[in-house]
Amino acid sequence: MKISMEYRVPYADTDQMGVVYYGNYLTLFERARNELMRSIGYTYRECEAEGWMLPVVHAEVDYSSPARYDDLLEVTAYVRSRKGVRIEIACEVRRKGEERILASGFTRHCFVSTQTFRPVPPPKRFLEACGEDVGAERGAGLAARTAMLAMLALPLLGATVRPEDNGSALVNPGMGFTMHYYSNDPRNYGSTIAPGDSLEWFPGCSVCYLRLPWAFVEPEEGVFDWAALDTPAQRWIERGGQVAFRITCSEDWLEYAVPEWVVKAGAKGCRWDWPAGGQPTGAIENGRLWDPDFADPVFLDRLERFIAAIAGRYDGRPEVAFVDIGSYGLWGEGHTGASSNVPQERMDEEVKLHVDLYAKYFKSTPLVISDDVSGAWDKSGYYPLLDYARGKGVGWRDDSILVQPPPLHWFHEDQAARYWRSLPVVLEHGHYRWCVDEVKSWSGDLLLEAVEKMHASYMSIHGDPRRILDENRETVDRINRRIGYRFNLVEATWPDRVFVGENAEEFEISWSWANAGVAPPYADAFPCLTVKDDAGGIMAVVCDDRFNLRFLDVGGDGSPPVAQKRLRVSLGRHLAPTFAAGTYDVYVSVGKPDGTPLYALAYDGGDGHRRYPIGKIEFAVR
Q1: Is-catalytic flag, 15?
Q2: Tell me, what's the pLDDT at 584?
Q3: Residue tagged active-site, from 15, 185, 533, 607
C-alpha cells in the first residue's frame, strides 16, 4: 500500500542557505507515516490504545536536490519490508508534478508493548490491514524465506573497499590557493616568478588572482588591454586551474586608478595624500592622489560600461573562479577611512550601487565582496550592507588575515558564519614580507585556524610564492588537507560477480561518502563507478544522480559526517555486444550526473581523467 500527501514549505522550515533544513525531512517522513497508518485503518492513538507502539529504531535519508520556501511537495510513503517484529516504512519527497526525487529514505520501527517496552508480535489486525498472509508462515520463518528470496534475486555483495586518502593537495574548481600575480601594483608578485610559470610546484595553487587598477585595463575609452589579464590567466587555465579578478578605482601609489579619461569626462572626486612615513590625510585640496565620488553619475555611467564589457568577456566561463566587487574604496577593499574618508552611513548606500552593477552583469560567475564594506573595525554583529550583498548571491572575503599580531589577527569571523554554508569564503593574508619582517604577525597555526574557523574555500599566496612555501611547507600541506571540500569514499561494496548482457540481473552498490574539507563545493557533485578493461577501455558507467555530494555536511578535522546510499543497477542487454566474461577494473569518480568526472580525489593511480582505481569486478554472461 502506498499513500501520498501534499505539503507546502513554510519559511520556518528553511535554513540559512534558503533550503529546507535537512532535519525537517524526518518530520515530513513522520507526517506521511501518520497518513499511511490512517489509510490502513489505524492511527497511532489507536495503536497505543491496543497496547502497542512503533518506535523508530533506525532512520536514513538521502538528499538529492534541495526544496525551498513555498515549494508544494508531494511526500509518498509505503511499507518497504517487514521481518519479524520490525517494519520499514520508505518515503520519497518530490515537488508536486515532478518526477525527480528531492529526498528519499526510510525509518525502521519495532513493535513494542506500551507496558513493558519489550518487542511484541505484530497485531493480527495490523497485518490484515496491510494485506499480509497471517497464516502459518510468519516470524522467523517468514524472515528466513524473505532473506532467501532476496539472495536469489540479487547477487551477494562481496567486494568491499575502503580507499585511503593519500593526503595530497587537490586542484579543484572553487577552492585552493590563489596566487596574487598582480597585487594592485602589477610588479607584485608575478615579477617574483619566471615568465610562463603557473606555480604547478606550489601544492594546491589553483587560481591566478589579478588585481589591477581600472586605468590599466581600459587606458582609453572603449580600448581594453585584455592581454594584461589573459596572458597570466592562460598559464593557469592551460594546466587545469582558474583565474579571478579585482579591478580597483583607488590606490595609494597611483594618482588615477580610475582612467584619467573618466575624470576628464566630468567625473567628480577629491584629492588626498598618504605621505611617506606619515598618516593618510583624508580629502585635501592639493593631494597627490585622486579618489572618485563613488556615487557620481558620470563615474557610475562609465563604470557600468566597463563592468558590462568585462562581464561580456568572462561571465559564465568555468575558467573564472570568482570576481571581486572591487570598485569601491582604497585598494578595492571597500573602506575609505585611509583615503577619502566617506562616512559609513553614506557608504552603506553607495556600495549598494556597486553591488547592483556587478550583480546586473555577472549572472553566472561567483561574486565576492570585502568584509570591510561594513566597517573595517566593526564587530557589532549588525552588517546590513553585507546582508544586502548576500541577498544578491555575493560571497565574502577577508583581506586582513594576520595583517596585525594577535589579538588583532582578524576581526570578522562572525561574518564568515553567515556565508560559508551557501556562498564561498575567500581569505587573504597580509603581504608576506610585511607580516614576517615588519610587524611580526605571521603564524602558520593561526593561518590554518582561519581556514578552519571561517570555513574558507580559498587562501591567498600574497608575496613571493617560493619564499612562502620554503618557510611554511608544513602549514601549506595542512591547509591543503582542509581547505574547501575534499570528497572521501569511506566505503563501497558491490558483488564479486554480476551477470550482464541480455540476461542481466539487478545488483546493488552500497557506498558511503564524506566531505573531509571545511566547506561545500557550491556545485553539484555525483559519485560514479566506471568499469574498464585491461586496455583502459570503458565497459560500463554507473552514476548515482540521486546522491548529490554537494549537500554533505562538513565536520571537525578527522571526523566528517558520513552519508550512505544504496543503488540498484542492471547492465542490460543493450550493452551486450561490448561485454565479454572476465574480470575488470573498477574506478571511482565524482562529477556530472552522466558520469563525466570533474573533481580530483585524494587517491593514487588516477587514469588522467580524474577516475581512480579501487577494485575489481567479474562480469558473467549467460
Answers
A1: yes
A2: 94
A3: 15
